Records
---
Amino acid sequence: MSEPLLDVRGLEAGYGNTRVLFGVDLQVAVGGVTALLGANGAGKTTTLRALCGMVRRRGTITLAGQRIDALATEEIVRLGVAHVPDGRGTFAGLTTEENLLLGACTRSDRAAVRDDFERLYGYFPRLKERRHQQAGTLSGGEQQMLAIARALMLRPRLLLLDEPSFGLAPMVVQDIFRIMRRVRAEQGVAILLVEQNAALALELADTACLLETGRVVLAGPAAAVGNNEAVQAAYLGGE
Ligand code: ATP
C-alpha cells in the first residue's frame, strides 16, 4: 500500500480498568475499503470508537500523514472522519432532512451543502420520498440509509461504518451495499467497515483484518483473508 489514508499502530483501548484492544495495527488506503472482521466482543466497535476519540486510547493513529491520536472527537470530525455508529444514532424527533443538515453542521459552504442534498437523494431515493418524515418513524433500513447519508454530508475522507447490516432484511442489506459500492466508486471515500456478514464485507473490501480478543490475528487482501481456512470455518459457512 502506498502511504495509507489511515495508519493505526499499536492501538490500545478499553473501558475503566477493562482493556479491550491490545495493540491493534491496521491501515485503510486512500479511497480504499478495509473490512474489520471478528466475533462478538472482539473489539471491533471499540476500535472505531478509539479512532474517533470516543474512548481513551494509546498508540499512534495517523490520518493523511497527520497524527490524530491526541485530538478530540470534534477535531477528528473536522479532519474528515465520519462515524456511523452501531444503532445508527439518528435523531428520532427530527425529520430526515433535519438529520441530514446536522451532518453538515461543520461546513460553511451552504451552496455546496444544498447540492449535496440532491446528490445524496440521488443515491438514496427512499430518503427523498421521506424527507419531511420524522426519522423515528422510518423503517430500520431507511434509518440505516439516513445514518450513512448524514455521515456523507460531512464530505468525509474516511467513513467508519459499524455493522450497517445489523437487524435488516437481506434485500435491504443488498440495497445498502449496492449503494455503498456506488458511493465508493463515485466519491472516492475510504471506508473502515465493521460487519458481521463477512461475505458481504469481503465483497466490498480490498483489504481485511480479523480481530480476536483485541488483537489482529490475520490481515491482508480481502480475497486472501476470505480464503483462509479459519475465516471460512468461522465466518463464511465453512465451505
Ligand atoms: P459486537 O459485534 O458484539 O459489538 P465488537 O467486536 O464490536 O462486538 P466491542 O463492542 O468493541 O466488540 O466490545 C469489546 C468488549 O468491550 C466486550 O467485552 C464488551 O463487553 C466491552 N465493552 C463494550 N462497550 C463497553 C462499555 N461501554 N463499557 C464497558 N465495557 C464495554
Note: The beta strands are 6-15, 18-28, 33-38, 57-63, 66-67, 81-84, 158-162, 190-194, 207-212, 215-221.
---
Amino acid sequence: MTGSSPDSGNTATALFEPSPEFRADANAGPELQEAADKDRLAFWADQAARLHWHEPWSEVLDWSGGAAGAEPAERPSYVAKWFVGGQLNVAYNCVDRHVLDGHGDQVAIHFEGEPGDSRNITYSELLAEVSQAANYLTEIGLEAGDRVAIYMPMIPEAIISMLACARLGLTHSVVFAGFSPSALRQRVDDAEARLVITTDGQWRRGKAAPLKEAVDEALYANGGTPHSVEHVLVVRRTNLEIEWTDGRDVWWHETVAKASTEHEAQPFDAEHPLFILYTSGTTGKPKGIVHTTGGYLTQASYTHHNVFDHKAGKDVYWCTADIGWVTGHTYIVYGPLSNRTTQVVYEGTPNSPDEHRHWNIVEKYGVSIYYTAPTLIRTFMKWGRQIPQAHDLSSIRVLGSVGEPINPEAWRWYREVIGANKAPIVDTWWQTETGAIMISPLPGVTATKPGAAMAPLPGISVKIVDDEGNDVTDSEKEADFSVRSAGSAHVGYLVLDQPWPAMLRGIWGDMERYKATYWEKFAEQGWYFAGDGARYDEDGALWVLGRVDDVMNVSGHRISTSEVESALVGHSGVAEAAVVGASDETTGQGIVAFVILKGSTENTGDALVTELKAHVSKDISPIAKPREIHIVPELPKTRSGKIMRRLLRDVAEGRELGDTSTLVDPKVFEDIRAAR
Ligand code: ATP
Ligand code: MG
C-alpha cells in the first residue's frame, strides 16, 4: 500500500457504522440478503408484490435468451423477460393507487421554480393532471407503442407527460432540454417520435432562454425533410415569443388543461416498452437504451425503498438530477412515486440566485433524503462550507451519491458538512443500462468506507474478473489494473453474471450493437460487461474505479484516472480535476491533468504545478505522477455532470474535438485551450 494521505482511499480507513437508532428503524435489515441468498427469484417475486398487478405473472424470469454462445451467429438475443404474462399499469402504480388508498391529500411534488415561484401538487391533483394529459394524447390519435419525445425543463408538466405516456403505453424518450437542435433531431428520428412535448422557454440563471425555437430548428433541419412528428405540444413557462406552425403546434393550456380529469388506466404486459433513453455519450455516439415495465418498476421501487430508507408520508426526498438523465427517470419519477414519496422538484441551477439555493430549499421543506452527484459536492466544497453552515440542515438523515466514483475527500466533506457527521452516505453504482441501483450500501446495514460503493444489493449478483473471466478474488488471477491497488487488492472488470429485473432489453433499432457492446466480451460465460473497472479491498469492500477505457497505461502500468483525480482533489488547493492518458513516445501513455483551483488558493502557477506533481507521486506512486498539469477555469461536462475525458484526450493530443453534442457548454474549450 502506498496511500499516505488520510483521504487517499487507503483501505485501512475506519468504517462508518450505522447508528443503533438508524439500524433499529431501517427499512432494510440483514434478512434481505438472507432471503435473496436463499432463493433469488422468489426474492424478486416478493419485491414485485410491492406493486399492483392487474394480472399476475406465470413465471418470474425467462432467461432462455441469455444462454452463453461462442459463435457470433449462434449468439442468443440476451433479452430477458421478467414477470412473464403479468400485466400492470405504471401510472396507476405511481399515482392512482395512492389516491385510492386514501392518500390523495399528500403532497407528491413540492415544485420550486428557478425565478422563485412554487407550487405544491397533491397525489389527487397529480392524478387529475395525468388523466387530462392521457385524455388529450388519446384524442390526437396516439396509441400504445407509439413514441413521444419529451424536451422540457424540470417542471411538473415534464413528470406529468412521462406518467401520461406510461399510462397509455406510449414509449417516451426524454431528451435533455440543454441539448442542441441536432441532438434532439437525431433522437427524434432514431425513435420516430410522433409527438414532441416542450415549453416555450426555460429559466436558466435568472434569464428566460428559448426552447421551442430549438424544436423548430430540429424539425426543419435539412430543409424540412419529412419526419415522423405530427404534433408539438407546448407548455407555457416563460412567456417568450415563439414561432407557431398552425395545425402542428398546440398549447398545453388550450388542450390538456381543458381535457377531462377522468381516465381509466389500462394494464400492459410486463415487457411492454416503457421508455427509451439515450446514454450520456461519454464514450461516443449515444445508445438508445430500451426499458420495459414490470421488472423495471419492481427494481426502481425496491431500491428506492431500501437504499434511501424512504418512509412514505414522513420523509421529504430530493434527488437533484434532471429527468433527462436516467437518475431522473428512476429516482424522481418511477421509484419515488411508486413508493408514495413527497419530493422536491427544483427547476434551476444551484447558484441561482446565489450559492445558498439548495440549502434554502432543504430548510424550506425539511428535506430528509438528499441524492446528488460528486461533481456538485465538489462544487459545494469549492464555494466553501460557510454556505451550507449558514443553514439548518438538521432534517437531513440520508445522503446519496451517483454518477461517478466519489473521491474520499468529497465523501468525508459531504458526511461532515451536509450530514452533520451522522447521516449515512449511500454511494450508488448503476447505469442507464441497469435501470436502477445495483451496488450500494444499505444505510441501516452496511458499515461504509469513504469512496467505496461497498457491495451489490440483495438480489443482485456481480463479479470482478480478469480478461479471461477468472474471478479476481482467486488472488493468483489478479489483473494489475491500477498501481494503488497492486499487491493489496483484487482488480478487474465489473460484470453482472445474473440477469436483474430492471436490465435493459436492448438498444433501440440496433440489437447487433446491443450484443456487441454488452455481451461479446464475456460471450462464453454469458455475462453482462458493464464497461467499468472495480476492485475488492482486503476487507472485501467493492470500489468502482470508473470506465475501463479511462484506464491509462503508463510504461505498462495500468492506472485509473479516478485514482489520480482523487489524489489531486485531496490537495487543499484543488477543487476539481480531470485526468487523461495522452499518447507518449516513451511511456506509451503520459498522464495529463486539468485542474480547477479553489477560490481561496493563493499559490498558483509553476510552483503549484510542481507541488501537485509531487503530491500525486507521494500519494499514489511515482509512476502515477502527471506529465503535464494544466490549471483551467472549467471542465467539459455532460448535463449529468460527467467529465468528458475523451474530449480532453483530444485536446491533450492536439486533435480536432469529437462529438460535443451532449456537452453543457461546448465553449469551455476556448478557455481550456487558452490555459494550455
Ligand atoms: P455512455 O455509456 O454513453 O458513455 P455514461 O456511461 O456516462 O455514457 P450513464 O449510464 O449515465 O452514462 O452512466 C453510467 C456510468 O457512470 C457507469 O458505468 C460508471 O462509469 C459511472 N458511475 C455511475 N455511478 C457511479 C458510482 N456510484 N461510482 C462509480 N461510477 C459510477
Ligand atoms: Mg455507459
Note: Residues 123-139 form the longest helix (17 residues).
